Amino acid sequence: MFAFVVDRHVLVCAPGSHNHSQRPRRMQNKGAKLTLLGAVLVSSLTIWAVHFQQDQERENMYKGVLRDDERRREKMRQREQELEESRKKRELYERVQAVERAAD
Protein backbone atom coordinates (compact mmCIF):
# COMPACT_ATOMS: atom_id res chain seq x y z
CA MET A 1 0.00 0.00 0.00
CA PHE A 2 1.37 3.41 -0.93
CA ALA A 3 0.23 6.67 0.61
CA PHE A 4 1.04 10.18 -0.52
CA VAL A 5 -0.28 13.70 -0.06
CA VAL A 6 -1.92 15.72 -2.84
CA ASP A 7 -3.50 19.10 -2.13
CA ARG A 8 -3.48 18.45 1.64
CA HIS A 9 -5.30 15.12 1.19
CA VAL A 10 -3.73 11.76 1.95
CA LEU A 11 -4.18 9.38 -0.99
CA VAL A 12 -3.77 5.62 -0.88
CA CYS A 13 -2.88 3.11 -3.60
CA ALA A 14 -3.35 -0.51 -2.69
CA PRO A 15 -0.95 -3.08 -4.19
CA GLY A 16 -2.28 -4.53 -7.42
CA SER A 17 -4.51 -1.56 -8.08
CA HIS A 18 -2.12 0.16 -10.44
CA ASN A 19 -4.74 0.60 -13.10
CA HIS A 20 -3.69 3.84 -14.77
CA SER A 21 -7.26 4.77 -15.60
CA GLN A 22 -8.22 4.90 -11.91
CA ARG A 23 -7.29 7.76 -9.61
CA PRO A 24 -6.15 6.80 -6.13
CA ARG A 25 -8.92 7.07 -3.58
CA ARG A 26 -8.66 9.37 -0.60
CA MET A 27 -7.80 7.91 2.76
CA GLN A 28 -11.09 8.41 4.60
CA ASN A 29 -10.32 6.84 7.92
CA LYS A 30 -8.91 9.23 10.56
CA GLY A 31 -7.37 6.28 12.35
CA ALA A 32 -5.39 5.37 9.25
CA LYS A 33 -4.18 8.96 8.91
CA LEU A 34 -3.11 9.03 12.53
CA THR A 35 -1.38 5.67 12.18
CA LEU A 36 0.54 6.91 9.14
CA LEU A 37 1.47 10.12 10.92
CA GLY A 38 2.57 8.16 13.99
CA ALA A 39 4.70 5.80 11.90
CA VAL A 40 6.38 8.74 10.16
CA LEU A 41 7.04 10.47 13.48
CA VAL A 42 8.42 7.34 15.14
CA SER A 43 10.66 6.64 12.14
CA SER A 44 11.93 10.23 12.10
CA LEU A 45 12.63 10.21 15.83
CA THR A 46 14.41 6.87 15.56
CA ILE A 47 16.65 8.15 12.77
CA TRP A 48 17.41 11.33 14.72
CA ALA A 49 18.20 9.34 17.88
CA VAL A 50 20.60 7.04 16.03
CA HIS A 51 22.45 9.99 14.50
CA PHE A 52 22.59 11.73 17.89
CA GLN A 53 23.98 8.58 19.52
CA GLN A 54 26.60 8.20 16.78
CA ASP A 55 27.71 11.81 17.29
CA GLN A 56 28.00 11.25 21.04
CA GLU A 57 30.04 8.07 20.55
CA ARG A 58 32.34 9.83 18.07
CA GLU A 59 32.86 12.68 20.54
CA ASN A 60 33.59 10.25 23.40
CA MET A 61 36.08 8.35 21.25
CA TYR A 62 37.85 11.60 20.38
CA LYS A 63 38.02 12.55 24.07
CA GLY A 64 39.63 9.15 24.70
CA VAL A 65 42.33 9.94 22.14
CA LEU A 66 42.97 13.28 23.86
CA ARG A 67 43.24 11.55 27.26
CA ASP A 68 45.69 9.00 25.81
CA ASP A 69 47.83 11.80 24.37
CA GLU A 70 47.89 13.59 27.73
CA ARG A 71 48.84 10.33 29.50
CA ARG A 72 51.71 9.81 27.04
CA ARG A 73 52.96 13.38 27.56
CA GLU A 74 52.82 12.96 31.35
CA LYS A 75 54.69 9.66 31.14
CA MET A 76 57.40 11.30 28.99
CA ARG A 77 57.72 14.15 31.52
CA GLN A 78 58.12 11.61 34.32
CA ARG A 79 60.76 9.67 32.39
CA GLU A 80 62.69 12.84 31.58
CA GLN A 81 62.52 13.87 35.24
CA GLU A 82 63.74 10.42 36.36
CA LEU A 83 66.55 10.56 33.80
CA GLU A 84 67.63 13.97 35.07
CA GLU A 85 67.56 12.70 38.68
CA SER A 86 69.58 9.68 37.65
CA ARG A 87 72.18 11.91 35.96
CA LYS A 88 72.44 14.08 39.08
CA LYS A 89 72.88 11.01 41.30
CA ARG A 90 75.55 9.64 38.99
CA GLU A 91 77.37 12.96 38.99
CA LEU A 92 77.20 13.06 42.79
CA TYR A 93 78.47 9.46 43.12
CA GLU A 94 81.29 10.14 40.68
CA ARG A 95 82.41 13.14 42.78
CA VAL A 96 82.35 11.11 45.98
CA GLN A 97 83.86 7.94 44.59
CA ALA A 98 86.48 7.62 41.89
CA VAL A 99 85.14 5.76 38.89
CA GLU A 100 87.41 4.32 36.27
CA ARG A 101 86.18 4.66 32.76
CA ALA A 102 86.34 1.54 30.65
CA ALA A 103 88.93 1.75 27.92
CA ASP A 104 87.46 1.72 24.45
From TrEMBL:
Protein name: Cytochrome c oxidase assembly protein
Coiled coil: 66-96
One Pfam family it belongs to: PET117
Signal peptide: none
InterPro entries with a match to the protein in the record: Pet117
Subcellular location: Mitochondrion
GO CC annotations, alphabetized: mitochondrion
Lineage, highest ranks first: Eukaryota, Fungi, Dikarya, Basidiomycota, Agaricomycotina
Family: Belongs to the PET117 family.
Residues annotated as transmembrane: 34-52
GO terms of biological process kind: mitochondrial respiratory chain complex IV assembly
Keyword terms, alphabetized: Coiled coil, Membrane, Mitochondrion, Transit peptide, Transmembrane, Transmembrane helix
